[in-house]
């Protein structure tokens, strides 16, 4: 099996090259070319031919090829469908804010978690992405748009904590000074609630923001839409979030997709307030995006307002998230689904 060279940490790259008998400084050159975005080793002009040959025979460079690109007419949101070396696709979204560009990357091709409201969850699982494939989405978008991306959210296709080792590697690579150098404070990792992995993650004490997709205030409601809740019920999840804050000192975010008549009643808001009492957190309310075949509708605006008022009454900070790119199906999973439906894949 060939080595995935862009998933290596710098010291691993150095070992890889010196163990093959080349001097250490060659690693620096190779690293420089990889950062520049070359896609083939024979494009590395200042390295000797035998090193290029060794690298070509022993390793490969991950690339995210733009298969399709959509730009929103309303805001500057851009959505990519990227194709990897083996022909698998993922979606990536770039949003432009006052303070800079933010990218929503995918961590898996599909997802095993099967949340009923989610386009990705409904289309099954193919494989996890490597660290370099997660990085490649950012590199490709930066190159295409000619901008520097300052914020990353792991909220695209897939469950990041179900691809734990590759995601940790990605986080370290992307935040390292000799990489893209995007600091942990500018990274948000979203999870549906894989409790043991939340405990593993907190041991790293990264300064990133953990965002938990809660979407319901009790087990009965949550288990209806999120099968993971049958494995790790809500009390265990919230306990893990409290421990996460105690260990890392980082405020936890909760995502709550408001679905008309499912989780948006006053009583749900009261239960949610009770559940989160005393926890340093922030709640993002998102009117659910309708996905073909689910029958879910977004909550009415007056429901969103009533819900938020109840949370505020209990001193829980919450905001209704602005939806960007509504004309280009900017929530992940939807573009790929439409694309592969049409192409018969
Ligand atoms: N698997 C991770 C991260 C990817 S999903 C997770 O579940 O957190 C990113 C976010 O989009 C999650 O909060 C998820 O619950 C939310 N989401 C999925 N489908 C949605 C939809 N139809 N409308 C609104 N939010 C949705
Ligand atoms: Fe997977 Fe997240 Fe979609 Fe659930 S919401 S199916 S965990 S991608």
- The domain count comes to 2
Secondary structure: helix percent: 25-40%
CATH topology descriptor of the largest domain: TIM Barrel
- CATH class of the largest domain reads Alpha Beta
Determine the oligomeric state from the structure: single chain
Query: What molecules are bound to this protein?
Result: S-adenosyl-L-homocysteine, iron/sulfur cluster
User: If you compute it from the alpha carbons, what radius of gyration comes out, rounded to the nearest whole angstrom?
Assistant: 21 Å
Q: Which runs of at least 5 residues are low in confidence (pLDDT < 50)?
A: 341-345
Tell how many strands the DSSP assignment holds: 14
Q: Can you tell me about this structure?
A:
With 345 residues, this protein is α/β, with parallel strands linked by helices. It has two domains: 3-60, DNA polymerase, domain 1; 65-343, TIM Barrel (Alpha-Beta Barrel), CATH 3.20.20. The chain is built from 13 helices and 14 strands. It has helices spanning 10-19, 25-36, 49-58, 119-122, 131-145, 164-175, 195-204, 219-225, 228-231, 234-248, 266-275, 301-313, 334-343, and strands spanning 3-4, 59-60, 65-71, 78-83, 89-97, 100-104, 108-110, 125-128, 149-154, 187-191, 209-213, 252-258, 281-287, 318-320. The strands form three sheets. It has a ten-stranded mixed sheet with strand order 3-4-5-6-9-10-11-12-13-14, covered by helices on one side. Helix 5 crosses helix 6 (164-175), helix 7 runs parallel beside helix 10 and helix 11 packs parallel to helix 12 (301-313). The protein is elongated and about 70 Å long. Mean pLDDT is 93; it is low at 341-345. The structure holds S-adenosyl-L-homocysteine (SAH) and iron/sulfur cluster.
């Amino acid at each position: 099996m060939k080595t995935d060279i862009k998933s290596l940490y710098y010291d691993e790259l150095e070992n890889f090259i010196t163990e093959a008998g080349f001097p250490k400084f060659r690693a620096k050159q190779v690293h420089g070319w990889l950062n520049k975005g070359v896609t083939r080793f024979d494009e590395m002009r200042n390295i000797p031919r035998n090193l290029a040959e060794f690298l070509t025979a022993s390793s490969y460079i991950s690339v995210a090829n733009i298969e399709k690109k959509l730009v929103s007419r309303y805001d500057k949101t851009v959505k990519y469908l990227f194709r990897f070396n083996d022909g698998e696709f993922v979606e990536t979204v770039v949003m432009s804010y006052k303070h800079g560009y933010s990218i929503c990357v995918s961590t898996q091709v599909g997802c095993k978690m099967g949340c009923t409201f989610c386009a990705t969850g409904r289309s099954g699982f193919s494989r996890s992405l490597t660290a370099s494939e997660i990085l490649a989405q950012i590199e490709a978008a930066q190159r295409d748009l000619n901008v520097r991306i300052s914020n990353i959210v792991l909220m695209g296709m897939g469950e990041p904590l179900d691809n734990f080792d590759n995601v940790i590697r990605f986080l370290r690579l992307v935040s390292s000074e000799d990489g893209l150098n995007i600091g942990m404070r500018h990274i948000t990792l979203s999870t549906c609630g894989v409790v043991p992995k939340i405990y593993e993650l907190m041991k790293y004490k990264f300064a990133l923001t953990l965002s938990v997709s809660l979407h319901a205030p009790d087990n009965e409601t949550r288990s209806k839409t999120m099968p993971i809740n049958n494995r790790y019920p809500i009390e265990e999840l919230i306990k893990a979030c409290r421990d996460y804050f105690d260990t890392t000192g980082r405020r936890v975010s909760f995502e709550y997709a408001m679905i008309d008549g499912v989780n948006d009643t006053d009583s749900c808001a009261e239960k949610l307030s009770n559940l989160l009492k005393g926890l340093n957190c922030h709640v993002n309310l998102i009117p659910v995006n309708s996905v073909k075949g689910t029958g879910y509708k977004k909550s009415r605006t007056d429901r969103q307002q009533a819900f938020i008022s109840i949370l505020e009454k209990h001193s829980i900070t919450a905001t209704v998230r602005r939806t960007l790119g509504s004309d280009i199906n900017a929530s992940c999973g939807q573009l790929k689904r439409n694309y592969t439906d049409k192409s018969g894949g």
